[in-house]
Known about the structure:
This protein is α/β, with parallel strands linked by helices.
Amino acid sequence: xxxxxxxLATHADQLRSVSLASLIDDPNxxxxxxxxxGELHVDLTRHLATNETIDLLLSLAEERSVTAMRDAMFAGxxxxxxxxxxxxxxxxxNTSDRPILAEGHDVMPAVHAVLRKMRKxxxxxxxxxxxxxxxxxxxxxxNIGIGGSDLGPVMATEALRPWWxxxxxxxxxxxxxxxxxxxxxxxxxxxxxxxxxxxxxxGTQETLANAHAARRWIVEALGDEAVSRHFVAVSTNAxxxxxxxxxxxxMFEFWDWVGGRYSMWSAIGLSIAVAVGFDQFERMLEGAxxxxxxxxxxxxxxxxxxxxxxxxxxYRDCWQCQSRAVLPYDQHLHRLPxxxxxxxxxxxxxxxxxxxxxxxxGTAFVVWGEPGTNGQHSFHQMLHQGTxxxxxxxxxxxESCEPTEDGRYDMLVANCLxxxxxxxxxxxxxxxxxxxxxxxMDEADVAALAPHxxxxxxxxxxxxxxxxxxxxxxGRLIALHEHRVFVxxxxxxxxxxxxxxxxxxxxxxxxxxxxxxxxxxGSGDATTQHLxxxxxxxxxxxxxxxxxxxx
Length: 551
Ligand code: G6Q
């Protein structure tokens, strides 16, 4: 353990007996624990942290060279060391005139060329100059992709629902379970549907299988020649796109310096751009660029992604928190927990440091959540009274995108603020007993019930408040999290941009597939063989029943 970590561990032990309520009640608390970044208000007052904590965390950042690593990322150095690649998602939303170099080469002209092509395509869909094969306007785009080629576009498209252009809707298919494509297309007309096949590699098994099934759906209805009007691709691999039967003219390029889970700003975001119109897509890029400038230029003590990433490491390593809850009090952010789950867990769920040695600290939280107030009626019980401390992130807009006169939005805001306060302050035994006695309960019942109602409090949270969830705000929120995750990774000394842990499962699935189809027997270990045999037995039973019904 380094000096900075040792100092933090000692400090955490001292803080364990300090109540969060007493910290919050310090009248000067807001000076250091409330941050304003343009329209984004980040409240950190409900953290188990003092000025000394922040100073110690900033020393850790210095020791771990966070700013030097950040600068290396912006300079296009190969910070994805195991894949020898830069991680230049910041170039995708670089709305300034600054060049951005990947290994000495300015990537901005290529980025701008693809953005221009995306704009032209979006406009053609919207003004009806791009039609289906039978000459009818496209009214639905279906993005087929998975992981990073799905979660960002779904999350953002859902988040920006109020901004959807009229006459066009976006849908998403990711799961190779045939039900996903079938359910998604069941009410669609092939003549007015366009598929975007989104795959960086154009080699992903699930995406290609779904793309071929979608192709059959179009061809059966409209014939082979319809494919060119109903399919476009987003990929880095023109050859595979062409082999699939999509004209490279209808391919939107991106580059291997864009990580999958950092790619919604690239052509992978084409479905977002079609849904909301290219101008609004650009607003989203501008919002993200604002955060990039802040992350690149603000001193560490003022730098919101740096402070958030450091607080994450504080809870993960000095308080042994295993998970963090993402609680958007914003229905349109209902896919944000899933999006951040991938961003954080795939980026930092690792156990090996850059130099090949094992990590000496816990890494990535389990990230999970649901929109409020739904979560309050399900898992918040555990957040308030469970035996595990779960830091929470609350997201709330001052104003709804759906203004009503009936006060529902005020209820939402009040619930969000109340949850954070309840988590922080709790209720002790004496307060509970007093309230029960005041309600007229007899002493025996008070003694029996009061312990169950005690709320320990001291549970930390961040509240992110913004005016309204518009494209720029969404861009800001997501870029903030990308950089927060980067900071965590630097502190833990890992490569946040690779994902080797997903490889073994893919490899085994390919080995086991022939046993599942019945082409061979005996793939996999004893348990896999037993389960595969059971799958076949159950299928045979279903077939026998079907035969009896026909007979
Ligand atoms: C993300 C990951 C992963 C990837 C998918 C889809 O960072 O690399 O989620 O996005 O496996 O890959 P393709 O885009 O190549 O189909």
